[in-house]
Amino acid sequence: MAVDTDNTKWVVACTTHDIDEEDVLRFDHEGTSYAVYRLADGFHASDGWCTHEQAHLAEGFVVNGEIECPLHQGRFDIVSGKPMSPPVCVKLKTWPVRVEGHNVLIGVLSTAAKDAV
């Protein structure tokens, strides 16, 4: 784990072999849950919980660059987090991702940055 100067801590969420294209994987770190996606253009990450109800997006379906919530079938754009269909209307927080070797890393807020928020 490395901390960059912008208070981002890079944590290994999975390996490139853990997730197939057009799929999603759950990753939990320090009490926060994330969803990690693999699309044709690479890997992406967002908060794990739907902004509409308490359903984890890793239990949903990835279709055409969108994640469909398993509870009420609302959809978010995976890259931007933008709501794409009702009942979701609040944007999903997305997180930076980078690949180092076979590791997929998510840039999350460092503990110091979380405490300052």
Automatic annotation (TrEMBL):
Cofactor(s) named in the record: [2Fe-2S] cluster
Listed SUPFAM superfamilies: ISP domain
UniProt xrefs under Pfam families: Rieske
InterPro entries: Rieske_2Fe-2S, Rieske_2Fe-2S_sf
Keywords: 2Fe-2S, Iron, Iron-sulfur, Metal-binding
Ranges for domain Rieske: 11-106
PANTHER family: FERREDOXIN-RELATED, RIESKE DOMAIN-CONTAINING PROTEIN
Family: Belongs to the bacterial ring-hydroxylating dioxygenase ferredoxin component family.
Protein name as it appears in the record: Naphthalene 1,2-dioxygenase system, ferredoxin component
Species of provenance: Paraburkholderia gardini
